[in-house]
Amino acid sequence: MKKMGRAVVYDAPNKPFEIREYPVRDVNPGEVLARITMATICRSDIHSYQGHRPNPCPGILGHEIIGVVEQIGANIDNDMRGDRLTIGDRVTWTEYFHDGASYYRDIHDLPQKSPGLRKYGHDLVAEDPHFLGGFADYCYIMPGTGILKLPDALSDEEATPLNCGVATMISMVEAAQVEMADCVVVQGLGLLGLYGCAIAKARGARQVIGLDGVPARLQMAKSFGADVTLDVTTMDDQQLVERVRSLCSPDGADVAMEVCGLAAVVPTGIHMLRVGGRYVIGGLVNPNDTFELDGNEILRKLITLKGVHNYHPRHLIQALDFVMANRLRFPFKDLVDSRFSLDQLDDAFAQASARNVLRAAIIP
Ligand SMILES: [Zn+2]
């Protein structure tokens, strides 16, 4: 009998999910078949689900995934770090894959922007190999994916956000060049922002300032390395800028990072920076996220402005090592705060969209 697996299918934005079964075939060379043990709902899954950005459908959403290796195709011996990969290993993998020639990978060391790159959770379920998303029993890990073995000590809750939330934030902190003794502003204290506070602090930041409007998140950020948290609902932009600048003597913050998904915060964040300050955009994932900037401010203050989208495979290794090294210092295990089964995906999305839960885990 043919082996089958369940997938929770996303037919169209804002429509209830439906569980359907698809055949699970043997792997081709270069592929690995993983039995999913946990997938978490990322904010960008919610954007897709609500129709704010295009995503192929019918498809399987979910790209923050971990699983156990069930089959290994020819030509695959080791994980990204060079450790031997065997059946039964628990693994994470890059949220994207690309196989073949790549101008951006080979010439500019930007494999994450290779033309033709595909992302897990962004593919059609009807086409072979069907399983390329997180909310299902299985996922095929395709050629051109970076695979990383997970240490036993790490819980599924700590490991699942590694390949999106943590690795993206590692990429942002690298782009922002956060250095020892820097003052770092984090605009938005969702999952990315909380990791951002922790990574900046672990890198030796003197002052980490977290901004958000949700009291529970402001509270939580304190245990993730934020020295000061400011409630953006209690002051206007000018007051906020003055408050942050007063906390970052002598002339403002070294770094500000946008991870709240609101374009309007970018100019405010740039006003907070000192001369030579760095600003990184990480949350404006939807088209037409526009803001107005005074070019003269960028010029006069010698501001560096960068965007981060996806991440380099090395950031996934760094994400794992950062969480392993700091899991007793920061309560990463508390970030994934709820569990749902595949047939509860509608409820999980509703809870996650309403921000009743921070990170919802789906367990097949
Ligand atoms: Zn994500």
Name a few traits of the molecule.
binds zinc ion, Quinone Oxidoreductase, Chain A, domain 1, 11 helices, 24% strand, 364 residues, Rossmann fold, 2 domains, alpha/beta
Protein model, in words:
- The protein is of the alpha/beta class and 364 residues long.
- The chain folds into two domains: 4-154 and 327-362, Medium-chain alcohol dehydrogenases, catalytic domain (Quinone Oxidoreductase, Chain A, domain 1); 168-307, NAD(P)-binding Rossmann-like Domain (Rossmann fold, 3-Layer(aba) Sandwich).
- Helices cover 26% and strands 24% of the residues.
- It contains eleven helices and 17 strands.
- The chain has helices at residues 43-49, 103-108, 156-159, 165-175, 191-202, 215-222, 237-247, 265-271, 295-300, 313-326, 345-353, and strands at residues 4-9, 18-23, 32-40, 64-72, 90-93, 96-97, 118-119, 138-141, 147-149, 183-187, 207-212, 228-231, 253-258, 273-281, 304-307, 336-340, 359-362.
- Strands 3, 4, 5, 8, 9, 16 and 17 form a seven-stranded mixed beta sheet that branches. Strands 12-11-10-13-14-15 form a six-stranded parallel beta sheet, with helices on both faces. Strands 1-2 form a two-stranded antiparallel sheet.
- β10, α5 (191-202) and β11 (207-212) form a beta-alpha-beta unit.
- The protein is globular and about 70 Å long.
- The chain starts with a strand and ends with a strand.
- 48% of the residues are buried.
- The structure holds zinc ion.
- Zinc ion (ZN) is lined by residues 42, 44, 63-64, 164.
